[in-house]
Amino acid sequence: MANLTAALTALPAFLMVSLLLLAAVAYLFRDWERTVAIIAGVYTSGLAFWFWRMDLSQPTQMLLGRPIQLVAPLTVGDFTFQVQTLNAPVIALGLAMGAAAFLLAARASQGHTFVPLGLTLLAGYSALFMAAEGPLAPTLLTPLFLIGLSAVSAFILQAGRVGRVAGPLRLLIPPILAFPFILVATWYIDQIALNPQDNQPAQMAALFIAFGYLLLLAPTPLHSAQTSSAETAPPVALTLATLLYQLAVLYMLFRTISAFPFVVQDAPLASWLEWAGLATAVWGGIAAFGAVHAGRLWGYSALHDWGVILMVLATAGARSLPLALFLLGLRTISMFTAAAGLSVLEQQTGGLSAASLRGAASRLPWNSAAFLLGGLGLVGFPLSAGFPGHWAAFQIVAETDWRQAAVVLIASGGAIFSYIRLARILFGPLANRSLLRERPLSAAMAAAILLISVSLALAPQLLDGPVSYILSAFNG
Q: What is the reported pTM?
């Protein structure tokens, strides 16, 4: 009993246990959706702020009358979890994403099980970020963690709705495909110590790790989970599941490169990222050009943005990682802005098809504007949050090959055209005369989200501090 009490005072145990306990309580009271969403949002906001401002040089901190050991490790079986300076900012960012999702779920339902399963997802991703030791290097166990977390995400995206489940289930494909490659890489890593003078094991390990992580990044054609789910899943739930997954893969990729430098030296990872990112960005823009469903248009816009991030990661130089993290921050703002508006539009109109949304902006102007501006931010439209990042990305890509930048720019133009077409539908003649006007509180929240998005478009330097802090974790 004493050992259990001591273990619970370690910060990793406190974080995971508190999130799981809150998830259990939220499940019991899941019928009170708005109340549990607000409580979960407030609690995770507090945790995110605490982790962001945490001073790990102080080994103990009092919380709720109990001492919490900030840097004490937690051992569970063969795994050791520990909060360190290299993972605390990433944990804080994940918790902040969860807090934003829960608070948005309080205004538009994301399904009765969203809050409890969302809290469980946060606990799982926090465990992945805190993993310090395991039966294998934690970076090599990332696909195994992501298989379990993607299974939870599939339930969140299904949200109890009767419809196609193929989209959510496709989340499992990238980590399942990647796991055998990473597993084979571990065997080659073991061979390196047996014969240090032989370079072949390191080269083979590098190839398998690089290809495994390329699969985890889910470029085209492994993208279908996101775009298919965007048509049927609750928008805020999809945003949280997508951003947490992508944050985890990027973070664990850089931890892997830090632990095994030969991955960059002996594998053409940059070349693979370059062409995978180009294909992803181009296909996202082309598919968005033909999309008439608002959810699919948003999903393909997010895919286009993800391709731009992969292309930036492939570029050499000191600017690539800071710019990729800057793009990730703008992506988070744009996706949540679009999801905030899209979730209200879906709830009020009963669907996201062109027929359902015809004229909806006359009754839901603020939420329609939030969706349009957030979606346009994902394709780098001027005066949207994503524009500064996309403009900088085009410049850095053009330094290597201006033709690639031109092709991506044309693809983004196709997506922009689709948003203009959808704006004409939204602001056209009202088809559903029984559509209610948006409530003052909902309009005020949409206006506040729009203000944040526009502020970052006009003053992107506001993200310099957060990006620099998170950069320290990725470079660790």
A: 0.95
